[in-house]
């Protein structure tokens, strides 16, 4: 029997973001679960993190939370996620999420989400993470970031090939196809790391 693949989902913890992002996050989770993927996420109970967990549980999906102990102490964790791994630091949380995943999905988020995305892209650039990185660009949320990536490429801060490290999708229904068709970024990527 083939073991279940887990997707690490990075997203916002703020409960105050617009409804459209909650809707897209719930749909993205439903799509993953119904396609047989397990979900690894940051363990939170609010914001898009909470929406992801609630939707996974609603559809009887496999979900694992990874959360720093200090967040549990202030009761930020999702109470109904039974598979909750406690770590000591934010770095350990991120490292474990990446280690346990066969791909990442980046939903809209703030500074923490950006940190997670950029760490994975740095690992990919160095050939240390070969799996797909999918960015859900709900209502153009990541358009500004994509413009920055273009500028980085135009001004030689990275090579054009580095733009193949991620896949942009506009709709949750496109996530599975993107995961399945993404080019694995192999160990030879280190050859492209330097300019």
UniProtKB/TrEMBL annotation:
Keywords: Cytokinin biosynthesis, Hydrolase. InterPro entries: LOG, LOG_fam. One of its GO terms (biological process) is cytokinin biosynthetic process. One of its GO terms (molecular function) is AMP nucleosidase activity. Pfam families: Lysine_decarbox (PF03641). It catalyses: AMP + H2O = D-ribose 5-phosphate + adenine. GO terms for cellular component: cytosol. The keyword Hydrolase applies. The keyword Hydrolase applies. It is an enzyme of class 3 (hydrolase). Its EC number is 3.2.2.n1. SUPFAM superfamilies: MCP/YpsA-like. PANTHER family: LOG FAMILY PROTEIN YJL055W. Belongs to the LOG family. This is Cytokinin riboside 5'-monophosphate phosphoribohydrolase.
């Amino acid at each position: 029997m083939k073991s279940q693949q887990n997707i690490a989902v990075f997203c916002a913890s703020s409960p105050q973001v617009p409804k459209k992002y909650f809707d897209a996050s719930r749909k993205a989770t439903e799509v993953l679960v119904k396609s047989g993927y397990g979900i690894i996420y940051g363990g939170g109970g609010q914001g898009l993190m909470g929406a992801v967990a609630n939707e996974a549980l609603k559809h009887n999906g496999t979900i694992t939370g990874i959360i720093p102990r200090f967040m549990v102490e202030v009761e930020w964790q999702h109470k109904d996620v039974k598979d909750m791994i406690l770590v000591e630091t934010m770095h350990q949380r991120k490292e474990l999420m990446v280690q346990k995943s066969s791909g990442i999905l980046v939903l809209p988020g703030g500074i923490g989400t950006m940190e997670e995305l950029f760490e994975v892209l740095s690992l990919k650039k160095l050939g240390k993470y070969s799996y797909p990185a999918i960015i859900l660009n709900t209502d153009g949320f990541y358009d500004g970031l994509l413009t920055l990536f273009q500028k980085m490429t135009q001004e030689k801060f990275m090579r054009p090939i580095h733009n193949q490290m991620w896949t942009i999708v506009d709709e949750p229904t496109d996530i599975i196809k993107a995961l399945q068709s993404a080019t694995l970024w192999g160990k030879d990527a280190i050859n492209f790391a330097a300019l």
